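Hi L.,

You mentioned the student needs an example of a multi-chain input paired with its predicted structure. This one should do, with 536 residues in total across all chains.
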Amino acid sequence: MTAGNPLALYARWQVRDAFTKAVVTLLFFLVIGGVPLWFLLNGHPPAGIDSQERIEQMSRMIYQQALGSAMTLGALLLMSGVVSADRTKQHFRFLFARPVAPWAFYLQYFAISVMLFVACTTLVPVGFRFLVTPVPVLAVVKAAALYALLFGALALLCSVLVARDGVLLVLVVVVSMSLQQLAPSNALPRWAELLAEMLPPFGTAEALRTRWLTERSVETGDLTLVLLYALGMLVVALVLLRRVPLAR
Amino acid sequence: MLGRAVRAVEDITLDVAAGEVVGIAGPNGAGKSTLIAMLLGFLPPDEGTVRIDGVTPRAFVEREGIAYLPELITLPLEWRAIEALARLSALAGIPTALRAVECARVIEAVGIAEHADKRLKALSKGNLQRLGLAQALLADRRVMVFDEPTHGLDPVWTARFRDIVGGLRRADRAILIASHNLDELERLCDRVAIIDRGRLQRVVSVREAEGALGSVVRRWKVRAATGIEALAAHLPGAVVAGQTLECTLDLAALNAGLAVAIAQGALVTAVVPAESSLEEAFRTAVTR
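Structure written out for the whole complex:
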C-alpha cells in the first residue's frame, strides 16, 4: 500500500472540527447585534433617530460594535483548549502513535482555523450589505485575519503550556487590554507601562480593527508589530510542542 | 508543573528483536504504562536511552508509526465508530481510495460491523476495546504495542485476540504486550519481562521455562476418579482435598509416585502444574 501524506489526508477532519468553532463568531454577532438591529430596522428606533439616514448611521454603528465584540470572543475561542484537551483527555495516544509530528498537526489545524474564521466572519458584512446597508468587506477580512492570528497564537501557546489554558488566556487578554487602555493616560507606574508594552498588543489590534472598519488608513508599523508578535507566539508554541512531552 | 516528582521507571535494560513477541508483566503501578509511554516517545527518559531501529522513539513514530492499543480507549465519545476509524486511518497515511476497504477489513476482524455507526458513548466496554484493537490494526506496522489488550473482553473475544496476535507474528515485526494476565502472556509471548516498582526484575523465556520443567521442583495438582489415598501415599508431602491433591515434587518423583499408585488401581483424571512457570517466576520476582 502506498502511504499518503497523513496530514493532508486528515485535513478534512480538521476542517470539520475547526468549522464548529469558527462559526461561533456568526452566532455571537447575531446575539450581540441582532436584537438591537432588528428593533431598529423594524420600526422601533430610539428617540431622535427619525430619518432613514440616521437609521443607517445607527445600524452601521451597531454593526461595528457587535462585529468587534463577536470577533474578539470568536477569536478567543478559536484555538482555546486545542492541545490541552488532547493531552488531558489522552487523545494524543491515538493521534500521535501515527506517522505525524504533533507540531505539524497543530500548525495545520491553526492555519485551517484561521482561514475558516476569516471566511465565517466575512459572511457578516456580506449579509449586512445584502440585508441592511453597504459596509466594507475587505476591511473585515483583514481585521478577522489579524484577530485570528493574534488571539489564535496566544490561545495555542497557552494550550501548550498549561492544562487550564482558558483561565490563563482570559487573564492575559484582560490584563493586556486593561493596561494598554490605561497606558496612554500616564496613570500607570513605570513597571505597569513596561508590562503593558510586553504583553500581546491587543490594544493596537483593536485600534487597527477600528480604523479598517471605519475605512481609515492604518500605520504599517502597528500592523507589523501585531503580526510579528503573533508569529513569535506561534513559533514558541510550535517549538514547545516539539520539546515538551505529550504525556504528563 | 508543581507536582511531586515520582521515579516511575529505573534500571530497565531490555532488547526486543524483530520477530519476537515480548510481554511486560507487573502489578499495578509497576511502571508498565510509563515504559510504554517512553517507547512511543510520549515521555522522554530523564536518563538512559530508548531506541527503535536505531533512532529515538519519536523519530521512529513520526517516520513510520507504531500500531498501538492504549490501556484505555480515550477517543472522543461523540465520534461514531466508523468515523474514528476513518480519521485514524487518514492519520495512518492510508489513501482515501483504500480507506473504506481498510476500515471494513479491521471492522470484520474484530466483529463490530453492527456497531460501526454508533457513537462511542453508546458502545459497551468490550466493544470499545474491540474498536481500540481495530484502530491498532489499521496499517501495516513493524512495531506493535498492546497495553492490557484483553481488558474488558469476554472469553470468546479474549481467545479471538490470541488468534489475531498469532496472525500478526512476522519475521520483521516486534510485538509488545503489557498485561496483568499471565496466562495470556504465557500463551502469546516468547519472553516476558517482569517489572516491579519501576525496575526490571527478570526476563522469563517462556518456551525455555516450559522445556526445563523436568529438573525443577514445582507444585502439582493431581485429580483422580478413584484411589486418591494411594496417590497420597506415594507422592511425598501431598495434601488431599476431596478428589484432588497438591504436592511439590520434581517431574521424576511425580511420575514415579503416579506409576506406583496407578499400578495399585488409582484412576488419574488430570495432572497439571498448580501454577505456570511464568506465574511461579512472577510470584518470586514480585515481592508485595
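You could point out the following to them. The two ends of chain A are 35 Å apart (CA to CA). The mean pLDDT of chain A is 91.

Best wishes,
N.
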